[in-house]
Structures are given as structure tokens and as C-alpha cells.
Design brief:
- By secondary structure, the protein is an alpha+beta fold.
- The chain has one domain (about 25-175).
- Helix content is about 30%, strand content about 35%.
- It has helices at about 15-20, 120-135, 145-155, 165-175, and strands at about 30-35, 40-45, 50-55, 60-65, 70-80, 80-90, 100, 105-115.
- A 5-stranded antiparallel β-barrel has the order 1-2-5-6-8.
- The radius of gyration is 20 Å and the shape is globular.
- Mean pLDDT is about 85; it is low at about 1-20.
């Protein structure tokens, strides 16, 4: 008698995702954006969303695939001026990845860089502008560079430049893996 189990019907990836409680939308990262005149701006500095969902004139959600690098800036003001500057560079994760919870980012992301305050945010924005001047898209920059900037900011050390040679080394290493 044959004790081997029969192969039976093979489930498609979408059916397997459905069985595991995941669907195609679960692998996407949703980043909330908002704009209230002269009071609050939550916007993307860089990132390539696959879709933008507009809720109304003031609120949107940008949708990113797994692995996408995104930079979101938060600016807040009151009657007396700016009260908060915040910049985050994050990488969208896979559904089963361990990710950090970030307000307005669902289901979460890998936080590569977090800058809070006028001087740190302006310093990072200068680095982003310098990267774009080199003709390199900030989404293509090595995640290790963003982490290095975060560590240097936290330690109060000078921020390193991102040079073409560093970018070429990152691309070569990525091609090998």
C-alpha cells in the first residue's frame, strides 16, 4: 500500500498569502502625508511611490514596494514660528520583517536616519542636495551611508560627503550579492 501523501492541488502565491493572513497589499508600505497652510507639512523629500492615494485637499498616502528608500520631512509651526523640524530616511520592509513603528507609516519601516531640529535637518538636506548635484538619486544611495549620517549626527561629529567612488563601490557590492 502506498503511504505517500498525494500531491493534490497546488496553491497559487495569492492563495498561500490568503491562507497565511497576508494579501498583496500587506507587502506595501503606506506613508501618510499632510499639508495644512502655514501650520503643518508632512511631505516626501525623495522616494518613488508606486501609487499616491488622495483623501482630500490636505491628506494623502504614498504607497511604496518592499525595499524602497523614502525620506519624509515633518515641519510644524505655531503663531510664533517653527516649533518642529523632523527628517526620517527609512526603508520599506517585507511583511514578516522586524520593523520599527513609525507614526504615519504602516505597517512600519527600517529607520535608517532620524534628524530632529533645525540644524540637523538642514545639515542632512545639504547632504541630499550634494548627492543630487553628483547626479545620483538619493533613493539609490547606500543604506549604510544614511546610518553613518545618523550616527555622526548623534555623536555631534562632522557629516561625511557621499562621493561617486563610494556609490560605485555600493553598486558593485550589490551586484555581487
Amino acid at each position: 500500500m502506498n503511504t505517500q501523501p498525494s500531491a493534490g492541488p497546488v496553491a497559487s502565491p495569492s492563495q498561500l498569502a490568503m491562507f497565511s493572513g497576508q494579501d498583496d497589499r500587506a507587502s506595501l508600505t503606506r506613508v501618510s502625508l499632510a499639508y495644512f497652510e502655514s501650520r503643518f507639512k508632512l511631505y516626501l523629500r525623495f522616494g518613488d511611490p508606486v501609487r499616491i492615494i488622495r483623501y482630500d485637499r490636505w491628506r494623502r498616502v504614498a504607497v511604496f514596494p518592499p525595499g524602497a528608500i523614502v525620506c519624509r520631512i515633518r515641519w510644524q509651526a505655531n503663531d510664533y514660528g517653527t516649533v518642529r523640524w523632523q527628517l526620517m530616511v527609512m526603508r520599506a520592509g517585507l511583511p514578516r520583517d522586524v520593523m520599527q513603528r513609525i507614526p504615519g507609516v504602516q505597517p512600519g519601516a527600517h529607520l535608517l536616519l532620524h534628524a530632529e531640529g533645525d540644524r540637523p535637518v538642514r545639515a542632512v538636506l545639504e547632504r541630499i542636495d550634494a548627492i543630487e548635484t553628483l547626479g545620483i538619486a538619493p533613493v539609490a544611495v547606500s543604506p549604510a551611508y544614511w546610518r553613518t549620517l545618523a550616527n555622526r549626527l548623534a555623536a555631534g561629529l562632522p557629516l561625511p560627503e557621499y562621493i561617486a567612488e563610494r556609490h560605485a563601490a555600493w553598486l558593485a557590492g550589490r551586484a555581487l550579492s
